[in-house]
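Re: [ENG-882] Designed sequences occasionally contain unexpected residues at chain ends

Forwarding the minimal case from QA. Structure tokens:
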């Protein structure tokens, strides 16, 4: 009996609670706001502290996958400079500073790549275009970039000093012919000529060789007005005599510059660059072929 009473009491209590909740929901037609709790700000991101590595290695140069990346990098840099300073005034090619660019072999050693001649010529054209910028308006970055492609010991950077007669009245001339080299020191005198410390008659037995050696003095009628001390080496008799001709003519030109037309016309100051052509295999001489025999 007591258990039945307890069950009925609990049932009535739960029924009353559910009715109270239902009545409350029916009468409230608005929503209540929850209490706002201030959220904590996230710490700032320090991008410099990231130590993640990319999934694959990124090449340092955009031309890494080309056949010659270093060469392409130089071309791209030069083209960028050319486009950047295209509005600067330029001068004529004849008025631009003379530059001794790398030769092909030197440039290949510089970049460490087998660059073809055609591609290197295209790079030189860009260098020449940048070199034509008006000298007093050349930017520093262009000047530094051009200097990187100059041969060591630029031959155009040193001005040639004109040769003159020294304080002792000596004029020095040098001449070459075939394998012979001659150096002449010419002073005013009575016509004495020494070759390697000996008389010219002792060194050159033939009259033709002696006349060839002294041709510069003979054609200008100065045989008895100058003394010559000559050092000659290499080659044969004919080569030595013709080397002395050029050296003597150049030395005489320092004493008397007005004789240049005469010496030029006589061929006394012109170097003869001809050499004996080599013999080829299967030939009798340089060009002569053996006689053809049918059988």
């Amino acid at each position: 009996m007591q258990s039945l009473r307890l069950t009925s009491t609990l049932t009535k209590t739960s029924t009353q609670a559910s009715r109270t909740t239902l009545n409350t929901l029916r009468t409230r037609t608005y929503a209540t706001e929850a209490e706002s709790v201030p959220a904590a700000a996230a710490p700032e991101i320090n991008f410099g502290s990231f130590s993640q590595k990319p999934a694959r290695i990124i090449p340092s140069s955009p031309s890494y996958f080309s056949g010659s990346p270093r060469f392409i990098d130089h071309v791209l840099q030069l083209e960028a400079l050319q486009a950047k300073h295209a509005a600067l005034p330029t001068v004529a090619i004849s008025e631009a500073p003379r530059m001794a660019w790398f030769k092909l072999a030197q440039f290949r050693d510089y970049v460490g790549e087998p660059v073809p001649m055609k591609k290197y010529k295209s790079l030189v054209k860009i260098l020449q275009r940048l070199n034509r910028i008006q000298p007093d308006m050349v930017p520093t970055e262009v000047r530094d970039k051009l200097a990187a492609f100059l041969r060591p010991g630029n031959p155009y950077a040193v001005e040639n000093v004109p040769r003159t007669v020294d304080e002792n009245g000596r004029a020095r001339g040098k001449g070459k012919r075939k394998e012979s080299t001659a150096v002449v020191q010419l002073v005013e005198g009575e016509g004495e000529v020494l070759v390697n410390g000996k008389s010219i008659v002792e060194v050159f037995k033939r009259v033709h060789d002696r006349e060839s050696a002294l041709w510069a003095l003979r054609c200008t009628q100065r045989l008895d007005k100058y003394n010559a001390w000559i050092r000659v080496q290499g080659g044969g008799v004919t080569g030595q005599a013709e080397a002395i001709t050029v050296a003597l003519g150049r030395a005489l030109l320092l004493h008397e510059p007005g004789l240049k037309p005469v010496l030029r016309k006589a061929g006394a100051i012109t170097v003869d660059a001809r050499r004996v052509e080599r013999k080829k295999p299967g030939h009798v001489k340089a060009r002569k072929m053996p006689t053809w025999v049918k059988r």
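QA comment: On inspection the terminal residues look reasonable. The chain has a mean pLDDT of 87. Proposing we downgrade this to a documentation issue.
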